[in-house]
Write a structure and sequence with these properties.
86 residues, globular, alpha+beta, YaeB-like fold, 4-stranded antiparallel sheet, 4 strands
Length: 86
């Protein structure tokens, strides 16, 4: 959020509200996204270059990370391994 606020006043708040809306949409769309990094589904943000990594077991959805898609894929993999799902 601080990164976007440093670019333009209020952009960080917009970033956060967009991500909250994306995550809330998982109530209706969880499980339709492609799997990435083994056990995680990856939902791309509709507005910003970010991805929401989550798991779904029956009706339970757990968001494990929201990461910038511009990161090195090896860094993303290492970060998600630290979440204990691998």
């Amino acid at each position: 959020m601080a990164f976007y606020d440093s670019r333009q006043e209020g952009l960080g708040d917009y970033f956060l509200s967009c991500l909250v809306a994306d995550i809330e949409s998982l109530g209706a769309t969880a499980g339709i996204h492609r799997k990435a990094y083994q056990d995680y589904f990856r939902m791309l943000s509709r507005v910003f270059p970010s991805a929401v990594y989550y798991t779904r077991e029956k009706e339970n959805v757990t968001v494990w990370a929201v990461l910038d898609c511009r990161r090195n894929p090896a860094w993303i993999s290492d970060h998600l391994k630290g979440k204990g799902k691998f």
